[in-house]
Design brief:
Layout lengths: L13 H4 E4 L2 E5 L10 E4 L2 H9 L7 H16 L5 H16 L6 H21 L3 H29 L6 E3 L6 H12 L6 E5 L6 H12 L3 E5 L4 H7 L4 E4 L3 E2 L5 E4 L2 H10 L4 E4 L24 E2 L2 E2 L12 E4 L6 E4 L2 E3 L5 H5 L11
Parallel strand pairs: 4-5, 4-7, 5-6, 7-10, 10-14
Antiparallel strand pairs: 1-2, 2-3, 8-9, 9-13, 11-12, 14-15
Helix pairs in contact: 2-3, 3-4, 3-5, 3-6, 4-5, 5-6, 6-7
């Protein structure tokens, strides 16, 4: 089987995101990459849950880690009977899917898919952990191929000699966008990445992938987007999303909303990439995760505020549909007010696959 991560950057290779093998899950520690390339080793699925909560991996990384965690859970209960294994895996799926509240619905798509693969393997007398990892590779292949199609539509919106601004780390779409731009002969496109405090995903992850893929990439601080849009003649602002609600609202890393406002003011299009989430019919179904405010008072472990100063740290914000120029899917670009048509056309979401 040819894998869809072929020729993509190091951190987009499946084994370098998260991988189950020999009774353990190894997750690339994106909190310190690329300064250090280290993996966090989890010996049980609750350690995977902790790694997800601690943001060892971010963006789409948690979905691969979740599937690997399910494979580990299957290993943990391998000596139990059918009923006991089934119950154990259901509890593991619940624990993993609820690791972070904002992405719970997408996580459930992954863990439910793992459960389907596990129950099928149990009924056939096959190794359950191996079956779940087969599912993991297959669902990643499906998603990477869908994202490649998204990248083709997105790249068509980016002119030669153009400039693009990103936000946070869009994971697969970042690598696929760079791949398609090069395929289209647009190697001269400049990419500007806001740093994305407090974990600096833009500076460390997006910029690294773009650099690894041979693109011209520049890191800016989070208070520079409006200035850079005007003075560097940005053509397109784009981001992935942690949820694209059916009513057109986009949930993504905090800071996306304000960049979208700046883009609107500067007459620039904002294209969000990803399939709509039918599990979120309206924005009211999304819970915004509030994280430890202490992280806003430090930079990579070095405190920047005086003792007694309070911090504030929403992990995500909400961009309304009137600021979204289009939702770039694997079958075309949809208006944010017309997302039902994506499913009416017979498409499946980005994280769904029939076993």
């Amino acid at each position: 089987m040819e894998r869809a991560d072929k020729e993509l950057a190091f951190m987009l290779q499946y084994e370098n995101i998260a991988w189950y093998e020999d009774g353990a899950v190894k997750i690339l520690d994106r909190r310190i990459y690329p300064v250090k390339t280290e993996f966090v080793t989890c010996k049980n699925h609750l350690e995977v849950v902790k790694a997800l909560k601690d943001m060892v991996t971010q963006s789409a990384g948690p979905y691969t880690a979740a599937a690997a965690g399910m494979a580990l859970a299957a290993y943990e209960c391998r000596d139990k009977n059918f009923a006991e294994q089934s119950e154990y895996l259901k509890k593991a799926a619940y624990n993993i899917a609820n690791a972070r509240p904002t992405t719970k619905k997408r996580m459930e798509l992954i863990t439910n898919g793992c459960l389907d693969a596990a129950f099928k393997a149990l009924s056939e007398g096959r190794n359950v952990s191996e079956a779940i990892m087969e599912y993991t590779v297959n669902v990643n292949n499906m998603r990477y191929n869908k994202v490649y199609k998204m990248a083709q539509y997105l790249a068509d919106m980016i002119p030669s000699h153009g400039a693009v601004m990103t936000q946070c780390f869009g994971e697969t779409i970042v690598g696929q966008m760079c791949r398609v731009l090069k395929e289209q002969g647009k190697n001269d496109v400049r990419i500007f990445c806001p740093e994305t405090r407090p974990y600096f995903q833009g500076a460390r992850l997006t910029a690294t992938v773009c650099n690894d893929m041979g693109m011209d990439v520049t890191v800016i601080t989070d208070n520079m987007p409006a200035f850079v849009m005007k003075n560097e003649k940005i053509d397109v602002f784009t981001s992935a999303a942690d949820a694209i609600c059916m009513d057109g609202y986009v949930v993504n890393k905090v800071g996306t909303f304000q960049i979208a406002i700046a883009a609107k003011y500067n007459h620039l299009p904002y294209f969000v990439t990803g399939a709509p989430d039918h599990v979120h019919p309206t924005i009211d179904t999304v819970k915004i995760e509030m994280r430890d405010p202490e992280f806003s008072l430090q930079t990579m472990g070095v405190r920047t505020a005086a003792d007694g100063v309070k911090g504030y740290y929403p992990a995500f914000d909400i961009t309304p549909p009137e600021l979204v120029s289009g939702v770039v899917t694997d079958t075309g670009i949809y208006a944010p007010y017309d997302l039902k048509r994506y499913f009416e056309d017979g498409n499946m979401g980005e994280y769904e696959m029939v076993i």
